[in-house]
Amino acid sequence: MPFADIIGHEHAKTLLRSAILQNRLAHAYLFHGDDRIGKRLLALRLAQTLLCETVSDGRQPDACGTCRACQQVDARTHPDFLVIEPDQEMANPQIKIESIRDIEHQMIYRPLIGNRKICLIDEADRMTIGAANALLKTLEEPPDHSLFILVSSRPYALPATIRSRCQALRLTAPAQTQVEAAVILKRELPPADAHFLALLSDGQLGRALECDLEQARTTQKEFAAIFSAKGLQSFSTVLAAAEALAKGDRGPEAFDWLLRWLRDILLIAVGAGSDHILNLDQRAGMQALAEHIDIDDLLDLIGDLEKMERQAHRNLNVQIALETILLRVRQLLTPPGTADRSR
Ligand SMILES: [Zn+2]
Questions:
Q1: What are 60-92's pLDDT values in tens digits?
Q2: Hey, CA dihedral for 14, 20, 26, 32, is it positive or negative?
Q3: How far, in Å, is the centroid of ligand 1 from the Cα of 56?
Q4: pLDDT range class, residue 150, cuts 50, 70, 90
Q5: Where in the chain is the domain with CATH 3.40.50.300?
Q6: Among 182, 246, 277, 324, fewest CB within 10 Å belongs to which?
């Protein structure tokens, strides 16, 4: 897979390509940015581009994606491409000093095939202090043929001494339309589903590509029923829904879907277009609700719900929280006259 295949990150790609062309690549890069936006993928492509055995036309350095070297980088079997990542078996995954020492020895030797030896350190912020200090020594006097690519979504957790030795490239999530285009292309899905997955994944391409569409649509329908006029019809339906969700340990999920639901209504109430509306198929019903809603009350509710979502994983009685919030939603969304509010 070539560089050109990567969605977004135009700035980083241009910068890296021109550095390759002008033969002034740094010895160490730090690719940082939010989770699952393609940082490691970009690092892999850079490694492939540098190790690829197919000669590119010289103007646009790129990987062919099909030669032996490209495949070996993909499979992590290329002798000049080393990967370090935290041990995921551990409760608190870390990169230990032993891994760094091991790499350090290997990086000293000249490359076996290509003219560069590349070390990718994924989730570099998970290095122990000992590991970071060991790496620092190597970064201070890197062998000429070496390239280190550190990847991190928490760069602030890296020692400043390490960061100062790396050229930092901040990567940002691709635009929603780019995520949609990629989902359509790679998953061969219709635009409506791509739109849904892009929004549901909050623009994180990795998640949008992996998300189980059928499951997500089923969950969407399930929550749409709970939040519908019928679902909110009486106290007893609301309380039963809250109880079932709490018992199924689905509090955080419920808060998330409810938030997305309310944000959709807010967007419709303020007359926004469809671009950011997740539950597009519910638009007509939401439109009717939005016409009667008090926007200040809606904003208050969204604010409180966001607070609750942040606390959902600790000491919160999920059932009571869900009951309270769903009853507030009921009060807010049930237009006067359609249901007996006192029931
Ligand atoms: Zn190749």
A1: 788 988 999 999 999 999 999 999 999 888 888
A2: positive
A3: 9
A4: very high
A5: 3-170
A6: 324
Taking each helix axis from N to C terminus, what angle separates 97-108 and 129-140, rounded to the nearest 10 degrees? Answer: 20
Distant-in-sequence, close-in-space partners of 262: CB < 8 Å, separation ≥ 6:
298, 301, 302, 305, 329
Q: Which CATH architecture has domain 212-333?
A: Up-down Bundle (1.20)
In this predicted structure, the answer to whether residue 341 has a pLDDT above a threshold of 50 is: no
Show the beta-strand stretches assigned E in the chain. 28-32, 81-84, 117-121, 146-152, 167-170
Beta carbons of 105 and 97 less than 8 angstroms apart? no
**Which whole-number Å values give the CA distances from 117 to 43, 143, 301, in the listed order?**
14, 9, 54
Looking at the chain, the whole-number percentage of residues with pLDDT higher than 70 is: 95
Ligand 1 centroid to 96 CA: how many Å?
32
**Ligand 1 centroid distance, CA of 4 (Å):** 13
Give distance in angstroms: CA of 55 to centre of ligand 1: 8
125 DSSP assignment: G
Q: In terms of CATH architecture, what is 3-170? A: 3-Layer(aba) Sandwich (3.40)
Which two structure tokens, joined as six digits, stand for 293?
Answer: 């809603």
Instruction: State the pTM of this model.
Output: 0.71
Region(s) of the chain under CATH 1.20.272:
212-333
**Burial of residue 313 (number of CB atoms within 10 Å: 0-12, 13-18, 19+):** exposed
- Pairing between β-strand 167-170 and β-strand 146-152 as defined by DSSP bridges: unpaired
